[in-house]
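From: lab user (bench 3)
To: helpdesk
Subject: output format question, protein + NAI

Hello, I'm new to running complex predictions and I'm not sure whether the block I got back is the full result or only part of it. Here's what I submitted:
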Amino acid sequence: MPKVLIADKLSTAAVNIFKMRGVEVDVKTGLTKEELLKIVDQYDGIAIRSATKITKDVIAVAKKLKVVGRAGIGVDNVDIPAATAAGVIVMNTPFGNSITTAEHAIALMMALARELPAANASTHAGKWEKNRFMGVELYGKTLGLIGAGNIGSIVADRAKGLKMHVVAFDPYLSAESAEEKGIEKVELDDLLARADFITLHTPLTPETKGILSAEALAKTKKGVRIINCARGGLIDEAALKAALDSGQVAGAALDVFAEEPAKANPLFGNEKVVCTPHLGASTEEAQENVALQVAEQISDYLLTGAIVNALNMPSISAQEAQLVKPWISLAEKLGAFAGQLTETSIQAVEILYEGSAAKLNQRALTQAALAGLLKAHMPEVNMVNAPLVAKERGIKVSETRRDQQGIYEGYIQIKVVTPEMTRAVAGTVFADGHPRLIQVKDIKLDAEFAPNMIYVTNEDKPGFIGRLGTLLGDTKVNIANFTLGRSAPGDDSIALVQVDGEVPQAVLDAIRKLPLVKSAKALKF
Ligand SMILES: NC(=O)C1=CN([C@@H]2O[C@H](COP(=O)(O)OP(=O)(O)OC[C@H]3O[C@@H](n4cnc5c(N)ncnc54)[C@H](O)[C@@H]3O)[C@@H](O)[C@H]2O)C=CC1
Ligand SMILES: O=C(O)C(=O)COP(=O)(O)O
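Helpdesk reply: Thanks, we reran it on our side. This is the complete output you should expect:
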């Protein structure tokens, strides 16, 4: 039974889902890094929010870990490259809390416009400072969105309801989509110059880090009000403090901070600043949504192989996972076969999907094929990081789909191009769900994959099979299966021998010395 750790505060809906689905679950929130490092190797999955940091060193000791599920959107607390390198899938719940967070941004904008927190505190203190608080209207004002994705778009929709004019800076927002949303797409400088309110809704990336820098703040309309419900690092906090002090910025409402939990911050204590402790996603509805979703997604992956909302893997539905599983195994084994025969650098990999194989999730199959291929010489490669490793090594990967042409209902062929040669291997999945090797170079055959095999190329002349069998018998290597193939009588032929146990090097050397043998290699699957 797979075991999952819930490391941040999640709705109890998550625990119930895990239990119902047959996943063992521990709830241990508020762990220090050291505590997490001590226990993380027990778990197949971890469910988190923004508090727990899944760093490189956590991934390094989490030997069983297969999936990190973020009950929410931002994944800047997860080292995705490290997870990818370790074959750990990182998932989030991209829509579960977006309405709630957009509503928080609007709430903060209103609180800022009318100084609600200060007025509230003053009234509770019995001061009745009616003349102290003078707000501004939102009606007719320009709202500048930095980032117009899911949350930004909902904020825009609500702001339009308040009769604001909405402009957005988002390089990835198409003109059509902007028009559809009633948003004016602008450049950042234009937004800074025109907006009465600026609200941030981008992820924290190297490009967006410090997007509201001292320089950017200097370009804003004097008296601008800023709302940040995305990530603290988007604003240079020291620069914001200076801009508030100079009056360039009239106020800021912040839900997120460069360092969290934010116990001390240069902006604390400033009455022009409205703060909440990262509450953007904190409504009953959103927390129920994200907890349910993340528990379903993690359970699905661990129990069925289905992948939804992963940031480092293509999606595969549960139904598809069932269908594609034997083909993934085939693709990986074909890749492993070709990889073990390849001793030189690889220039290109061409994968052909025919018939029923062409109707399956091609990205997953290609990732499996690449993983098998590259793992032969780089054990750290896995299905998740294989495309990246191939790219880093300059291996050109191409895929072709074709309707059924041959006798097999479906098959996969992998062609590996090296500076010396091109080698093709192909296989299919039989009705029993077992992958079969059906072609090596141009030679047709029919062989199952086994943990230990010997691959021999030889001249097709009488006497070879007997000698090989005798040698293996004499050296106590038990033959489980023996498959032969040749392009034409008397031409090149190959023998694939399934053996029980590892093949000693001395036996391989002896096979290579047999008459008619051209090459011999031990293969492992
Ligand atoms: N305060 C809170 O509790 C919460 C905060 N968030 C934060 O809100 C962020 C936005 O969430 P969603 O809208 O769901 O994400 P999203 O992915 O739907 O939208 C992000 C938008 O930012 C844009 N973008 C990316 N790089 C940009 C750049 N350099 N300049 C301008 N725009 C850029 C993208 O094109 C995209 O349209 C999340 O990344 C997360 O960090 C999300 C939920 C709750
Ligand atoms: O979903 C997000 O990106 C959030 O920032 C929400 O964070 P939280 O789950 O409340 O810690």
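A quick orientation on your result: Residues 98-275 form a domain with the Rossmann fold fold (CATH 3.40.50.720). Let us know if anything else is unclear.
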